[in-house]
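Appendix B. Worked example

We walk through a single record from start to finish. Start with the input: the chain for NodB homology domain-containing protein, Pedobacter cryotolerans, length 319.
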Amino acid sequence: MKIRSLFSSFRNKSTLTGVVLMYHRIADVSSDIWELAVSPANFEEQLQVLKRYNVISLDKLNDLITHQKNIKNNVSITFDDGYRDNYTTAKPQLEKYNIPATFFITTGFIGSEIEFWWDALQRICLETANLPSNLEINTPVKFSWHIGFEDHETKPSDLYLQLCEIFKKLPAQEHQALIRYLEKWASNHIKRAAYLQMNEEELLALNANRLFTIGAHTKTHPFLPNFSYKYQEEEINNGINTLEQLTKGKIKYFAYPHGGCNDDTIKIIDKTAIQLAFTTNPDGLTNSTYKFTVPRFQVKNWNGKEFEQHLMNWLSNKK
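Next comes the structure step. The output line below is what the pipeline stores for this chain.
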């Protein structure tokens, strides 16, 4: 069965009753084109709101979905990528309010001094004071960009989005050489510790707390549908195996990088021990939610009042 038909068939049979929330970063940032960061102050207000709701772990959610039990008004919390601020900032606040959460980790960046490519591109394109007006790339792809090219107004944000599409099609081993080329072009070699991922010690400290669960998010965060079955399989299995070796436990939950999956991805996940896999499809849960395409709502940098309005709308199927 095709993924699209899975979404539509299950959605039409049930009333939406529960939600999974998707966070990425808890930090104050200077630019955030994808709206991935929630400030620490707003995050605390959101947790104060969530204390009035039934927040459940993914283990509990898995039980409800597997046995088609009532999911009404249940909320689960997830974090993607494994940014260090998940440990330094989110963890203490989640502990303060005794709220469970799952952290999906991209294993190839654990303890790395390298930014994720989308953060590096944002730094280069959107945080360079005097960006050159022309860019020519010849390898690994041919690409040209000019401000005002062919009488069309173009902005650094346009360049950023175009480069993101290029990077999503490239294998991970080609990312860093292109990042270095772009850094040299923009004269922007700034290294930002705040944008790095957790190290092994921090990851294991999260895993040791019963409030928290560790999930897989591949090795290098590719947009999986752009790649072959073999490449997808290696990325998925490498991420799972690395985490199982580190945590000495079974990894039961998975989130698709960039939310992307196709029929091959689902087949690969089905061969693993993964019990729930999560998309970025903004939708609620039903009693018949398919276990390998669980939808999630992205939480943005809202204060408590704004967040609660969104949460109430999601729980009542008003997007």
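Two observations about the output. The longest helix spans residues 229-247. The chain has two domains: 19-112+198-316, 117-190.
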